[in-house]
Automatic annotation (TrEMBL):
Its EC number is 2.3.1.-. Keywords: Acyltransferase, Endoplasmic reticulum, Lipid biosynthesis, Lipid metabolism, Membrane, Transferase, Transmembrane, Transmembrane helix. One of its GO terms (biological process) is lipid metabolic process. Pfam families: DAGAT (PF03982). The keyword Transmembrane helix applies. It comes from Eubucco bourcierii. CDD domains: LPLAT_MGAT-like. InterPro entries: DAGAT. It is an enzyme of class 2 (transferase). The lineage of its organism: Eukaryota, Metazoa, Chordata, Craniata, Vertebrata. It is a multi-pass membrane protein. GO terms for cellular component: endoplasmic reticulum membrane. GO terms for molecular function: O-acyltransferase activity. The gene is Dgat2_0. This is Acyltransferase. Belongs to the diacylglycerol acyltransferase family.
Length: 361
């Protein structure tokens, strides 16, 4: 009996010593600093945004289809009925949730790059505006962060102005994803949706349009600034019909977030990309960024590169119900001049050289 007790005491002492050793080892491990925690939060905020835009719509659609063949089929049926009932809401200003713009996640998202917004002129709440957003880049990070989230202070810089961002109409046909987009202030890039905001939603509305669209993303790469704009005049005609002033904006650094394999014009891969873009609205870019584990690894997350979006001087536009081609060309030219001036006045301030030029195709 004494032998058993002695053995138990010895084991207990050994266990206590092991626990103490483990605790000392744990305490010796350096705890993450506040800077490390902020870096992780920033990375996670960007990860959720990328996954939301790349996967939310497709995964939600597949999930609802799967539920149709299970005992939870009423969920899919009821949501389908809701979409039919709510079909026109995206074309009528959407369903904005102010709390989403104030979501603290967007501050970490902003600080990851970081993204900044600069104002050169005031915007009067007594007018409506079409903001041309350039360049498209791969995922329009600057346009989203500045015009959809409240993290860069758009509402404080432009009091009385309510921003919207136009995106592909097909996105609003995807379940769940459509609710996410509308809650942030995104709208379809259609005449009906933009016309509603510029004529039936009062004044003080600013609709941001990434004018170059998917076609421009095919030429996106660091060190090259090429805009698809020369023959894009629909936004000018829309502005004239509703008397909305035209405002150029440029996001310096947008093209530095990813590395893309750019196929030359005339190559068979470029023709496939262009055909795909014409059929479904977006271009299948071959790109990569950083991985989740380290900056050196490759993945689908954007590199942490500073983005500065500069909002330029408004081009005053009269209201003309049926503008002539000459009038559209006139204001299109005025807009391009204003955009070029904005670019040239600010390029050296935000990481570009004096010799860098803006190429407009």
């Amino acid at each position: 009996m004494k032998t058993i007790i002695a053995a138990c005491s010895q084991n207990l002492s050994g266990s206590r010593a092991s626990i103490q050793k483990a605790l000392r080892t744990l305490l010796a491990v350096p705890w993450p600093s506040q800077r490390d925690i902020c870096s992780w939060l920033q990375l996670l905020s960007v990860l959720q945004w990328v996954l939301s835009f790349l996967l939310m719509g497709t995964v939600s659609l597949l999930l609802l289809i799967y539920l149709l063949f299970t005992s939870f089929w009423p969920i899919s049926v009821l949501y389908l009925a809701w979409i039919i009932f709510d079909w026109d809401t995206p074309e009528k200003g959407g369903r904005r949730l102010p709390c989403l713009r104030r979501w603290s996640v967007w501050k970490h998202f902003r600080d990851y790059f970081p993204v900044k917004l600069m104002k050169t002129h005031d915007l009067s709440p007594s007018h409506n505006y079409i903001i041309g957003s350039h360049p498209h880049g791969i995922l329009c990070v600057g346009a989203f962060c500045n015009f959809i989230t409240g993290s860069t202070g758009f509402s404080e810089m432009f009091p009385g102005i309510q921003p919207f961002l136009a995106t592909l109409a097909g996105n609003f046909r995807l379940p769940i994803f459509r609710e996410y987009l509308m809650s942030g202030g995104l709208c379809p890039v259609t005449r009906r949706a933009i016309g509603y905001l510029l004529s039936q939603n009062g004044t003080g509305n600013a609709v941001a349009i990434v004018i170059g669209g998917a076609a421009e993303s095919l030429s996106c790469r660091p060190g090259v600034t090429t805009l698809i704009l020369k023959n894009r005049k629909g936004f000018v005609r829309m502005a004239l019909r509703h008397g909305a002033h035209l405002v150029p904006s440029f996001s310096f650094g947008e093209n530095d977030l990813f590395r893309q394999v750019v196929f030359e014009e005339g190559s068979w891969m470029r023709s496939i990309q262009q055909r795909f873009q014409k059929m479904i609205g977006f271009a299948p870019c071959v790109f990569y960024g950083r991985g989740l584990t380290s900056v050196q690894s490759r993945g689908f997350l954007p590199y942490a590169r500073p983005i500065t979006t500069v909002v330029g001087k408004p081009v005053a536009v009269p209201k003309v119900e049926n503008p002539s081609r000459e009038m559209v060309d006139k204001y299109h030219e005025l807009y391009i001049r204003s955009l070029l001036k904005l670019f040239n006045d600010n390029k050296t301030k935000y990481g570009m050289l004096e010799t860098d030029e803006l190429h407009i195709l």
